[in-house]
TrEMBL record, chains A, B, C, D:
Pfam families to which the protein is assigned, alphabetical: Acyl-CoA_dh_2 (PF08028), Acyl-CoA_dh_M (PF02770), Acyl-CoA_dh_N (PF02771)
Primary subcellular site in the record, as a coarse category: cytoplasm
Domain Acyl-CoA oxidase/dehydrogenase middle, residue spans: 118-209
One cellular-component annotation, GO: cytoplasm
Protein name per its UniProtKB record: Dibenzothiophene monooxygenase
GO molecular function, one term: flavin adenine dinucleotide binding
Domain Acyl-CoA dehydrogenase/oxidase N-terminal: 7-84
Family under the similarity heading: Belongs to the DszC flavin monooxygenase family.
SUPFAM superfamilies assigned to the protein according to its UniProt record, in alphabetical order: Acyl-CoA dehydrogenase C-terminal domain-like, Acyl-CoA dehydrogenase NM domain-like
Location within or outside the cell: Cytoplasm
Keyword Cell membrane: no
Amino acid sequence: MDLHPLAERLSSRAARYDASGDFPQEDFDDLREAGLLGLMTPRHLGGSGASFAEYTDVAIELGSGAGATALIFNMHASVTGALAQTPDELVRQFGGAESFFAFRDRVLKAAAEGALYAVAMSERGAGSRLSQVRTAYERTGSGFRVTGSKTFVSGAGHADAYLVAARDSGSEEPKISYFLVPAGPGVDVQQTWDSLGMRATGSHDLHLDVEVGEDALVGGIEGAALLLAQVMPQWLVASYAAVYVGVARSVLHHGVRHLTERGLHTLPMVRARLGRADVQVAAAELVVREAARRVTGDPGSPETNRWVWRAKLIAGDTAAQVAFSVLEAAGASATRRGHPLERLYRDARCGALQPATSDVCADWLGAAALGEDPDGQARW
Amino acid sequence: MDLHPLAERLSSRAARYDASGDFPQEDFDDLREAGLLGLMTPRHLGGSGASFAEYTDVAIELGSGAGATALIFNMHASVTGALAQTPDELVRQFGGAESFFAFRDRVLKAAAEGALYAVAMSERGAGSRLSQVRTAYERTGSGFRVTGSKTFVSGAGHADAYLVAARDSGSEEPKISYFLVPAGPGVDVQQTWDSLGMRATGSHDLHLDVEVGEDALVGGIEGAALLLAQVMPQWLVASYAAVYVGVARSVLHHGVRHLTERGLHTLPMVRARLGRADVQVAAAELVVREAARRVTGDPGSPETNRWVWRAKLIAGDTAAQVAFSVLEAAGASATRRGHPLERLYRDARCGALQPATSDVCADWLGAAALGEDPDGQARW
Amino acid sequence: MDLHPLAERLSSRAARYDASGDFPQEDFDDLREAGLLGLMTPRHLGGSGASFAEYTDVAIELGSGAGATALIFNMHASVTGALAQTPDELVRQFGGAESFFAFRDRVLKAAAEGALYAVAMSERGAGSRLSQVRTAYERTGSGFRVTGSKTFVSGAGHADAYLVAARDSGSEEPKISYFLVPAGPGVDVQQTWDSLGMRATGSHDLHLDVEVGEDALVGGIEGAALLLAQVMPQWLVASYAAVYVGVARSVLHHGVRHLTERGLHTLPMVRARLGRADVQVAAAELVVREAARRVTGDPGSPETNRWVWRAKLIAGDTAAQVAFSVLEAAGASATRRGHPLERLYRDARCGALQPATSDVCADWLGAAALGEDPDGQARW
Amino acid sequence: MDLHPLAERLSSRAARYDASGDFPQEDFDDLREAGLLGLMTPRHLGGSGASFAEYTDVAIELGSGAGATALIFNMHASVTGALAQTPDELVRQFGGAESFFAFRDRVLKAAAEGALYAVAMSERGAGSRLSQVRTAYERTGSGFRVTGSKTFVSGAGHADAYLVAARDSGSEEPKISYFLVPAGPGVDVQQTWDSLGMRATGSHDLHLDVEVGEDALVGGIEGAALLLAQVMPQWLVASYAAVYVGVARSVLHHGVRHLTERGLHTLPMVRARLGRADVQVAAAELVVREAARRVTGDPGSPETNRWVWRAKLIAGDTAAQVAFSVLEAAGASATRRGHPLERLYRDARCGALQPATSDVCADWLGAAALGEDPDGQARW
């Protein structure tokens, strides 16, 4: 599928959604119509059964159109992708309930039919440190009661269900589990998101005081969240990366257009800035695609995971750096609100700050290069 | 005078004016009350008779409170400072009219009494290239008629008069002159400013179709604008610099506060980022103060002018770089609109893009280092 | 073929050849024995018939052992690779002599049997600008007389023949042709090479006053040199790149070893430096391999050529930057002569300075990004 | 005194001493003749009674001539300067012996008469961590016996006496004292120095097994070494800084010369590199001079010490960065051994690696910026 026309449509609306901070409803109408909400849903459930590498293609393209829309989509793909790609054996090996499989299939089928999922992991104070999560759950007769507050929930208020990380309130040790909590009463959005960049993600706060059924426990397994973060880091660490490669590409695209229109393209320093930005973006894209290729072919191996962390680091840093440099080449006239480079300068700064931050990635990669176990140190 | 309390008041309002983009009226009420509009006015005319070095002290302090307010003030100081500090002999040497001196004194006295002046130099297409100015003037019986449009006029709509660069419409060669045009009919503001950063400068467009008297011609000299740019580059090139040193200082200040509050200050990478930012800011401040000291003691000399261009380059680059790095240290929670670091990340990017841009400064300084005449090439 | 053991042998001798500046005779004995001098020779002539991508694999591996040895090998591979891979049709299309094909096959067969070729292109004053070459040739009864002086001839004195760029002394317009000039009388080496890095390349001066036969004219075509530079930039621009990726890898390898031995690997800044170096090297390697893959599959296309220039830029810059940073992490004890990181710091600085320099690459890539013809401007 | 002619003489010999690694005897003959060995000796003892600021002037000038010579001189100035500038009251307050004062005056008088002193602080394994020193001393009837090995002793074999840090072998807690040990039997130089840069410092190993008199204990105080490092950090941390500012200046000087001679000075990227290097060097010099001014006027205050650490960080980083960039501008022809830029590229890399390394300085400065006690953590 040629996604370029779709990306163009996203791009044409990006300034408006950035200004208002509204949920990009028209973009998601388009995504839904293009069948992209079912991208990760297996074919036998009505989806496209995409691999992580195919997800990456899509996310780069969407990110080059509108970073915020691509980030919301990334969260949806993370939920559906992780569900679709966790091997049944692994679920069984960790004692997962058989009933989970039917639940999972319903969830994935719904996605193929247009349902949108979001992730509610971060909390104020704890950030994205899963082990520090204070949102709690306790068993009830018919399932679980989940209570607490989340932040940075992209797409909040527009998702059909939320993947919620919560701790067992009855356990001394941190036992962190995932629940898929449907939108509805007891799941309240507080509009807190008003941000430098990626404004249309609507990453508001979510307050939970809700009962869910037995099968809302993902995998039917308690305490699996931290383990999953380590064995499938791609959805936590690197799925953002593709979005920021798209953003970085968009910087180049709009930079070239602006500079040519303004007749600045003959200035030697402008050309040098663009040339260096070009190779940075090309390199970041290769790293992100290499990570995606390896996740697809050899998921969870130590070497694959190194590429996953490399992808996160280079994509976030590259987007921010090229936006910084190309805006400088473009000059003051490109700092007007509504100009694509103005928005991209703000959007692009966000990647390195999303978990795992670039500084955390650098430490992880340094440890791996030194032959240590980079996950030996608690990072989530 | 201890300006720190004043800077604190500016700082407390900065988020509000940034959000609305309104002219910072309360800040200017404070500045007026503190007598700062007369900073450059000689003492015998009721002002403080400040040197460029003293201006620099003030601008750094104001910039650390609110960059946009400091930039508007900088334009006012440029007009009053250049008027006050151009030696009478120089005016006479170039054939200036004697009547100019009385006019100048009235202008400076009015500043001491609270009048605010702005600069209308840049034009769409020409940028800040004085030699490319298309706003035209022609002699009338009683003075001049000035016609054209300006852009990036900080404080537009709130100034009592504007320093306007215009070309003699009857001359084949570019003869660029300065006029001090009072606000009023024929001087219309078009609200075009809605910018990434420094939003409260209200640097709107100005449309001119107005008659002014004989003595509005600054210096009573036609064609002096380009020459002045070269012999007194400080007001064109380096007076911004002090503002951006203030902005950079403010980044450190708010970075330390945020990191301490969030308990992030013990992270080694955070400390390293702050330590490196600290020395960058300290170095930029020394360069800007050295330039100011030399402008004060030895204005216009080749060595002084090198320091002026160095000041512009290092201040703009440093502000942008430390804002970039400290925001990364601070993390996603500091990207919320209204957070000082969010605003500073946007404000700080603007310095290197204001003329002379950092790339232009680097070329000028390279030429000077190579023993060439860096003004041999037309830069304005 | 697993080249790792060979690279280890090169590595074990690198300090010695670096210290003496001698031609790495033992390394080339090993290369010859491993059949690598015939790497680019077609199989039917006794070689390995390697593609550019396969060359790249070999060059990275050799470069990780000893950069200087790999650079000499690169020159040999450039001569044999360009000869082997120039399509016969192209030669005929440009009016090449049929006799050339037999000559070419003899040359390539000799390589497979152990002959070593070098490149004599650069000249003092002209650098690598082919169009500025002053070495001249004129027709004699039986062939050509070639007269002039070359510099930066890696492997000088140890090659069996030299690819020499020379201009037609009888032509007004620059008509630059290539000759393959056998070592022997009239081809004199002047030992001028005593360099910061890559010391064992022995890139001495070559003085030519020699007669060669008709078939020494490469392709049997006069005036083809500049054209070739544009249609096959890989051998001029990017074949170095693989060597510097090897050098950069070696920096990581020796950095990890040193830091672990010294117990410095637990320092957070050390880990961060290594982590960032790791991703830079991984990215550069991907870019160089992508360029090689495209040269192999789609040689000479505009998109392939962009990757070729990207490869040169990122490989040279990355090697220099990681050597700079990792040496800083390693500390003063790694600056002792004989320490691998000390040599690598010097070797790694050379890549960006070899033609096309990084600044030239940035300009070429900027032009390409802007949609211009980057070869529209004379670069050779 | 105009030191420029002296710096020129040093510069003219620098390539030769760099190549041989010999002690720069002729340079020190010149320094001795110019009375510079008595620079820090008070006037009433026959010296110049220079302040730290005056030392800085001299060290910058010498460093611009020959970095290695300036570093040896720096060590001599550290010994004599610290002796001359430690207030008598402080010595008495810590229980120093009265006999020390006569000894100190003899030492300083000897310097004014041409004696050269060196510093023997670092040890293999411990680096410059004073608290880790293993060289031991014990009381004998008539004084002390000092036993152990030192490394990085600049000027070893050519100094008249060495300032040696040693620990009390009888004490459980680390009690580190300084001794001034005369050259002679029991003080043996092992020629280990063969380094990337600053080759002529001859910073060889020193093996000590020697008895010294009572008054060789500096200050007549045991256990004062660590305290001194904190209250007078300038001689440990920042006296190098001036040397590297000189080196950085020299990079600019030789860069301009080379680029002009080669006709490369018209290339835009070359000019931009020089322009940016120019402002970096100017800024570093201002920071180093500001630190020196404050050490002179307000020694030991927290604010002064911040400037001392800033000076070390910026001087080391700036020298290395401008050498890296200017060599790239200069191109391959400047990498020939014997070319000033070739040597400077190696010399300039050493500053950030000398203790306190740039990474340590960044941490110290980050802690100070955060309002912590940066010396609260053991750094020596």
